[in-house]
Amino acid sequence: MRVRLLEAADLEPILRIEQRAMANPWNEGQLRAEQSAGNGIAWAAESGNALCGYAFFRTCAPECELLHLVVAPERRRQGVGADVLQQALAYFAGTNFAACFLEVRTSNQAARQLYGKFGFVQVGQRKNYYNQPVEDALLLRRNLIESS
Ligand SMILES: CC(C)(COP(=O)(O)OP(=O)(O)OC[C@H]1O[C@@H](n2cnc3c(N)ncnc32)[C@H](O)[C@@H]1OP(=O)(O)O)[C@@H](O)C(=O)NCCC(=O)NCCS
What we know:
single chain, alpha+beta, Aminopeptidase, seven-stranded mixed sheet, 4 helices, binds coenzyme A
């Protein structure tokens, strides 16, 4: 498996994964907007020639935000999500970003475990942030620079 920057040709396989993997999938318009956003950056994981995971970030230096991290259902628990996150955070740490933020549903134990392993800590809670179903978001933060 390798992790690389997302390319335009990844849109179709991503849409297919969104449709079968997510309760509230991103649509083509959202994906295109994120792909072309000037302050956006995204990574894809591929195995053989098949795309199996991806992560979209927004940057607002010195901070970045993880907007969307998805692994194809049949490829979960095989280290794909961790590899994508590892590569993205290493890039941001190496380019002098200070912190990464993200929001996660309170019920999303898989994602919360993953982010906990990567050193994300809760810094806030947003009441009824999500729809379908309505649920709070936890706001997590991870420092990217060592404090001296
Ligand atoms: C969350 C998600 C990205 C994890 O991807 P993944 O490739 O399956 O995760 P990894 O195999 O890299 O797992 C790394 C660690 O995360 C934690 N983890 C991942 N899935 C887990 C699960 N279902 N239950 C508990 N812990 C889990 C574990 O600590 C795991 O390490 P371990 O396998 O050594 O125990 C994936 O489940 C997914 O795509 N979910 C749907 C989309 C989503 O919820 N995205 C996050 C939105 S904030």
